[in-house]
Design a protein that fits this description.
The chain is mainly α and about 475 residues long. It contains 20 helices and no strands.
């Protein structure tokens, strides 16, 4: 194992201290009630919103799980798997105005308006099952980074990472999460822009040579996978980002509809740029680290072994920033689901604002513990990442798209679609263990849409909720 220099360790620790300090400062200044905590009192400006959207999406999945796939299959495959994210974000931009008008705290709240109470409960369960898996991947990724940097025992490093993410989420909610996300996004981009020329200079042929002399099996769009297997990695990412409650929640935290739309445009551009940086960085790892037993850590090992200590420290801090900020975002969004969709909706309808704020924080602790336990049952970051993406993309996104746009979808159609996507993912991923190496989303997402429209066609005589109920105004 590579040993990190004291400079790298100092950079990572300094970043963590700064981000925690900013989080505590914003908590004291800006968090006064549950609305501040959950959606930053719907006051985020464009630059901060773009930063938090980018950092929320580009976390451990991009720099560990996806980097693993790129290292194994090559940069063209990286273009293929990352293609789903900007396309999904472009579509998210087109619905951003409607999302802001809905002004709900969570997606299940919107589902209840359109599909009824049963849909809200089922969607909440599916979101929690998916998001806890994503949060577990953030814990594991940050733990791997600390483990490589300090040689700390991996399990201890994972626990420390989880505690840091929990503290950021519990103290300031969306206020501290959004602003520290923005800091992390700018640090990440800057760190990668400086590191890539230094790494490519150590490879024969330099920057362009990296892409001309790729090893066999890493020089095609599908790499070492079949076309259907490759599609199985694209579908979950595309449908997760299109209906991602984390993204939706931040769109709802915008100052107004126009801010949400501007942020959506900026996010598409920023995501394409960041994906290009990750692909290029990982491609350098194909040459500089040709034999690895932990490809999830390829970017971390490049920072430690092939960059000057100060630059390596900045890059490691940049990676930590994206992982931490994504993790605390998921702590916040899952605790929001538990608080608003279960506790406040069914157990304490008359809860005061102070009680809601307290329960948001208490539930966040439980969420972090559950994510840690789930992470122990998955062998690597990529496996937990793909399960979580598939669960969410199949159970929530089809029903959300229909809730926002399909006028003739019925309540029972929406409920059946959510169930079909969630149960289908569990059966395909856990019971059948991904037959033929094909990930579940390529089967379950179309199946969920088909069930929604099929059941709705059979139940058109039952009254469906008009879109006007969702937005509180006439919808064209």
């Amino acid at each position: 194992m590579l040993n990190a220099s004291p400079v790298i360790i100092t950079c990572v620790v300094l970043y963590l201290c700064i981000v925690l300090g900013v989080g505590f400062y914003l908590t004291n200044k800006r968090v006064k009630n549950s609305d501040d905590f959950a959606v930053a009192n719907r006051s985020l400006p464009t630059v901060v919103l773009i930063g938090t959207l980018l950092a929320t999406w580009c976390g451990a999945g991009g720099i560990t799980g996806s980097a693993n796939l790129i290292w194994r299959n090559g940069p063209l495959f990286g273009v293929l798997i990352f293609m789903g994210a900007p396309i999904g974000m472009l579509l998210l931009y087109f619905v951003s105005g409607r999302v802001r008008m809905a002004t709900t705290y969570t997606i299940p709240e919107l589902f209840e308006i359109r599909y009824g109470t049963a849909a809200r409960v089922i969607a909440t369960v599916c979101i929690i099952l998916g998001y806890v898996g994503i949060l577990a991947s953030q814990f594991k990724a940050a733990g791997n980074l600390i483990n490589l940097t300090t040689n700390m025992e991996l399990e201890t490093a994972i626990i420390i990472s989880g505690v840091i993410m929990l503290v950021l989420a519990v103290t300031g909610g969306m206020v501290s999460v959004a602003y520290t996300d923005a800091i992390g996004a700018f640090l990440f981009v800057g760190g990668f822009l400086v590191a890539i020329p230094l790494l490519s200079g150590q490879i024969d042929g330099g920057f362009l040579g990296m892409f001309k002399n790729l090893p066999e099996g890493r020089d095609t769009f599908t790499g070492n996978l079949s076309f259907m297997q490759a599609m199985g990695y694209i579908f979950p990412i595309f449908f997760l980002v299109l209906g991602d409650q984390n993204m939706i929640q931040r769109m709802g935290a915008a100052k107004d509809v126009e801010t949400a739309k501007r942020s959506g445009r900026g996010l598409v551009i920023a995501e394409i740029f960041v994906c290009a940086l990750i692909i290029t960085m990982t491609t350098a790892g194909i040459y500089l680290l040709p034999n690895m037993d932990r490809p999830d850590t390829v970017i971390f090992q490049l920072a430690i072994g092939f960059l000057p200590p100060l630059m390596g420290g900045i890059l490691m801090a940049a990676c930590m920033s994206f992982i931490i900020t994504t993790g605390d975002s998921y702590v916040l969004t899952i605790s929001s689901n538990i608080t608003y969709d279960i506790w406040n909706r069914f157990l304490r309808k008359d809860a005061t604002d102070k009680e809601k704020l307290l329960f948001l924080r208490v539930s966040a602790v439980g969420v972090a513990l559950l994510a840690y336990l789930m992470g122990r049952f998955f062998p690597d970051i990529l496996s937990v990442q793909m399960y979580a993406y598939s669960m969410y993309g199949a159970s929530v996104t089809p029903a959300l798209v229909c809730a926002l746009f399909a006028k003739k979808v019925t309540k029972i159609g929406g409920v059946c679609g959510i169930l079909a996507g969630g149960l289908g993912t569990i059966l395909w991923e856990i019971v059948f263990r991904s037959p033929f190496g094909i990930k579940s989303a390529i089967i379950t997402v179309p199946f969920s849409f088909a069930v929604i429209y099929g059941v709705s066609a059979l139940t058109q005589h039952k009254e469906s909720v008009p879109l006007e109920r969702v937005y509180g105004k006439n919808v064209a």
